[in-house]
Write a structure and sequence with these properties.
The chain is globular and about 50 Å long. The protein has one domain (2-215): Metallo-beta-lactamase, Chain A, CATH 3.60.15.10. The strands form 3 sheets. A 6-stranded mixed sheet has the order 1-2-3-4-5-6. Strands 7-8-9-10-13-14 form a 6-stranded mixed sheet. It has 8 helices and 14 strands. By secondary structure, the chain is of the alpha/beta class. The chain has helices at 35-47, 62-65, 68-75, 86-90, 92-98, 171-182, 201-207, 209-215, and strands spanning 2-8, 13-19, 24-28, 51-56, 78-81, 112-113, 119-122, 125-131, 140-144, 149-153, 156-157, 160-161, 190-193, 199-200. The relative contact order is 0.14. The chain binds zinc ion (ZN). Zinc ion binds at residues 59, 61, 135, 154, 162.
Length: 221
Amino acid sequence: MNIVKFVFNPIQENTYLLWDESLECIIIDAGNCSAGEDSRLTEFIAKYGLKPVMAVNTHGHFDHIMGVNYLKQTFGVKFALSSKDEYLRATAQQSCAMFGIAAVVDVPEIDIDLDSVESIKFGNTELMVIKTPGHTPGGVALYEPQSKQLFTGDTLFRESIGRTDLPGGEYGTIIRSILTNIITLGDEVTVYPGHGEKTTIGHESLYNPFVVEAINGEINY
Ligand SMILES: [Zn+2]
């Protein structure tokens, strides 16, 4: 599986393009929000002869979702998001304005509800859908078990975790998601977060202060 990262929009969000030998590709967390960012994506797709089949989202925050409509209009991709984040999809425009970003955010309806599927497929590749609520109620991580690559959205970052003070966030829930559903995948797993640099579960178990204090039982959650 091939992975390329784009950093898009004023929130510096990571958008990942994944493809395999079939040349089918998916876009995780399409955050492109300008003509220039749209072009960077389409030019890459054209250069490698890729066929986009799905826009899939780890969660519904506007900075992760604002490019989905462009992909739908341009490539006719299916849109996968948990229905538990529907309230964020529906209010993405207002959220974007609240952050002071002048962009039109028109997000299409959900085609595939990640709350009710165990995996998603493209080409010859299957990604497991792992529920990780806490940053948002419908948050998921996407995991490719053969290559041990995990896309965590805003649940787990390199040496940090996602904020839980936005509507629908909850600290105890995100910590339980990380300890139960992410850390247990194994130290060698590579983590591709929604912001910042990639990391590994092994690194986070040792150096992520939020994970370390939870593992050591230093906080109640
Ligand atoms: Zn988020």
